[in-house]
């Protein structure tokens, strides 16, 4: 926060030059340590330019605009406003003092003017000049007082600025602390997440499309909260190993595939599709192996078996029925519970409205969609379930 206040003419730097004459001369009057110098000649007086800088003194007194506050204490913003009006008042007061000095100076010029001197006695002029010198001295003292007031107001403003900055900094730190303590909101579309049943792992899961896995590429995946990486071996067959090097636990997917082996980017250890380390640069080759999952490729998809039970010998066919074709292969990551996903797949009524750009493009809206359940099937075939 920066507040700039300007006290006009505090240093008496206003245009106090007087009109010049081709025939001018000076006379100096000195009383004590205070001197008054007047310049006069044929033209005399204040130059015609005074109207341009006299506008500097035409400033409204700010005392009538002082903000009114209620209560015993002021907040930071009110305190800053009070200091600002103090500065404005000091500026106005200084302008008035300088204006008084200027008017007195004009009176001095008037007294010393040769034309006016003809009508006044020397004694009168001395007395008048002494009075003017005294008034001028008082006004000079008032200017110094105004300077001191402005300096004090600026010091007060700097102090208030420091207090406001400290207050804002404390409030910002407090707000950051409150935000850090608030629990982070997570997407919850299906209720609390339940722990996986161990039996869920004993199934074949399709994880990637075969077309996406090239000989020199690898694809990292997450399955049951564990990280794995899939790549093709020397025989072109797909394999799935844990995404962690046995040496320094570096993620293997940050490395590369080298001659059918996945290479760690840290020390160059290389693993085959069964998880065995077949190359250890700069050291003696040891019998080291990382975990690998059964991996199988069928009908354009790569499947893995994450469970501990022996994998099933056959996989379900995902080929489309006769007369249908695959329009697109899409991979989506959705933070939903798997039961909701199954409900969506079994809900055919939404297809003509949601999937208008893919497989349901051009579908007509059916008048009735019949949902089959085990009970309804038994009822249709005449079996009574007790």
From TrEMBL:
Domain Rieske: 204-304
SUPFAM superfamilies per record: Bet v1-like, ISP domain
Keyword Iron: yes
Entry-linked InterPro entries: ARHD_Rieske_2Fe_2S, Cholesterol_7-desaturase, Rieske_2Fe-2S, Rieske_2Fe-2S_sf
Ribosomal protein in keyword set: no
Domain of life: Eukaryota
GO MF terms held by the record: 2 iron, 2 sulfur cluster binding; iron ion binding; oxidoreductase activity
Protein name from the UniProt record: Chlorophyllide a oxygenase, chloroplastic
Organism: Capsicum annuum
